[in-house]
Write the structure tokens for this entry.
Amino acid sequence: SPLAPAFAYAHNAVRFADKSTAHIVLVSLGKKATPRCNRYQKKKAAAMSISLFLHNEKAYDAAAAMLSQTGRAAVIHPTGTGKSFIGFKLCEDHPEATVCWLSPSEYIFDAQRNNLKKETGGDMPQNIRFYTYARLTYMTDQELKDIAPDIIVLDEFHRCGAEVWGARVETLLSLHKEAQVLGLSATNIRYLDHQRDMAQELFDGNIASEMTLGEAIALGILAAPLYISTVYSYQKELKACERRLQSARYGAVAEQAQQYVEELRRLLERSEGLEEIFATHMTDRTGKYIAFCSNAEHMDEMIAHVPEWFSAIDRTPHIYRVYSEDSAAAAVFHAFCSDKSQHLKLLFCIDMLNEGIHLDDISGVILFRPTVSPIVYKQQIGRALSVGTAGTPVIFDIINNFENLYSLGALEQEMAAAITYYNYIGEGRRIVTDHFKIIGQVQDCLRLFDQLNEALTASWDAMYQHACQYYRQFGHLNVPKQYRNAEGIALGNWINTQRRIRRGDRYGILGAERIEKLDAIGMRWESRSDLAWEKYFGEAVNYYREYGDLNVNARYETPSGIRLGAWLSQLRTCRRSGIRQSYLTADRIQQLDDIGMVWEVPDYLWERNYTEAMIYFRRYGHLDVPVKYTANGVKLGIWMRTLRKARSKGTLSGEQIRRLDDIHMLWKDSYSRAWENGFAHAKEYFAQSGNLNVPTAYTCSDGFALGTWIINQRNARHMPAERKERLDSIGMVWKKTDSWEHRYALARAYYETHGNLDMPADYVTEGIWLSRWLSEQRQTYRGRRQGKTLTEQQIRRLEQIGFSWRDQKEQLWYSYFEELKQHIEAHGTADMPQKQCSQSGRPIGRWLHNQVKYYRAGKLSAQYAELLKSAGVVLDAAQ
């Protein structure tokens, strides 16, 4: 196209920060000339709390202009250049806007917030509503809509390429099409995901500012490092080659290979050991260094070498160890950051500090871990490169990452491109660094290893013939790893080696021609473990499609008999411990993330439970959740109680507490809240009455039974001293007189009102169970209450208000007896049918029949029997 050169020029102008030129070219090529209405006019203030470095200020201005024109803008700057400050500045300049800030983790965001506070002395803008990408997956569309952002910041936006995260981000963007979207990342390319360009997918190619790592070093934004490459890792590689040499069955091959092995051994013996390398180049003897390890076992191995490798620098270095799944990681990291001692500080880490975390006083990094992603490699070396850092950071590459991933040659090419461009536009004076120093002895080793591998593969055609023979016999090349043919040839090992060479796991020559020949005889490039992965991962995909997540019970089996739950549980263990990295690769981790893999079950459950708590709060306006309350399978009431215990034990993070406070979490348990409610009523009573001598039956105007509550406090067996002191301060009466006189007065009042004492059995007045008290007087009168008596005066006074010493059962019997006597007086006999009723309608015939029956069964008291006989009732059949 005739316009191609202009487009290329515009692209470079954007890349190298000449934003005004780029804008002019793009407009002249037909870009919309009418700018989009910017809802937030940038406010000019006398002094801003957030100030930017010059390169970030230019990027910010370019991003602001692009946002006003297109609504979307991406800033692609290397790790360590302070990209997050651009986003914070945008939030500060638009205080009236609601900003939705998305990040891969709370840990990254907290670190950025702490850096902001350290640099500016202030807190982050208050208009930010922070979410992790993972949290979006738990939110409904309505909850995403309720965010109502004016600005969306996608931090580390290359992570939006994950299937599940990306889908929810797209939903958020579609729900808020008018929101301006700013993206921040060190790279827009997903190297392990078919080279996807996320700047194109998310921002339609609207890159406001792009800067390569080489350009940042050339311009002096990042300090040029001293790169130390070592031959340490080649010792293991040499041993592997020696083992291969032992199995070589062809004399000429073995002889040539043996020469290379001997030469390599001599070269490695002459090379400096790590103790000399560290002693020579670790010039900051009290500095801070981050060491990246593969897994927990590898970390332990590296830490065990500390006395050997670093004693010449410091015999007692301060050693810290963190990994992403460790709950204490934040505290350890903080201790490392705060360490100002005169000792060497070494932070050994696994899967941490790769992304978004920056320290301004790191002296260097030590790469013990081989990486599988150019992104991770650049992020790791970026820990030593931070804008504004003085001195020369040191990168100790112990395993020579750059040979297989992001070569230093590429970095040098980026620097050369930047130098050429700035010289071309007449700004060569801006170039600060035109090279950086590389120290190492790896080139000769690489040459010899290539020659050795070529010699050992000289028998490739012969081994291929054995493979063809196996294929003709079995119809496939799924050869067991330990398989040897009839001639003793280790064909299984050779097949596996071809797979490893193609994957890049080991040195070897395997061109397109050889790959095509193996394909022709049914070569499966996946290993047995790869085939197992495909089977289990396929089941995981099916589970995700059906249930929407991978929160699988550890005992779950699929209908086809696959133990999917156990497999996923093993994967969590592998990632947490760092074992089996050849099986659980970064690519596979990404595949699992894309279908909702739950790596930390407690974190997943916490987020799920928090979502239900938020729904409950929105529905009821509080979090006073009943203990037995359950919603969508979440026992929310029990979880609330668990949270209170967790906070008292200090196991809740500050961020979790803050989020719970946002929805008005009740940190006191229901019993404590009930007590506080009662105390508030008691305090109000004291303020009005001047005492706390509360009547037992007293009820407050809102219905609160204060009298009963006071009684409960008196009867409490184990009252905390703090509560007792608070009650004493408002005149608590701990022992209140509860006299016989008071109860008699209540009984007399009842008699005067009703004319009798025939009250219900459960009658209570002023908190006193009066009917029971009267029953107690009756039992005392009869001598049935040991140690208790009634005075003659008390007996007389009770009888004066109609109190009967008979209980209700006795009174009922005597009432029937009186009606029986009336019947006998009227008819002259006690004989009557069972159906006979008295004048009042009582079934006196049946009653009399029962008395006779009781007597003959020996169940009628002698007193009752004598009364009946005296009235003329024949009880004894013999009479």
Summary: Residues 1-48, 401-407 have pLDDT under 50 and may be disordered.
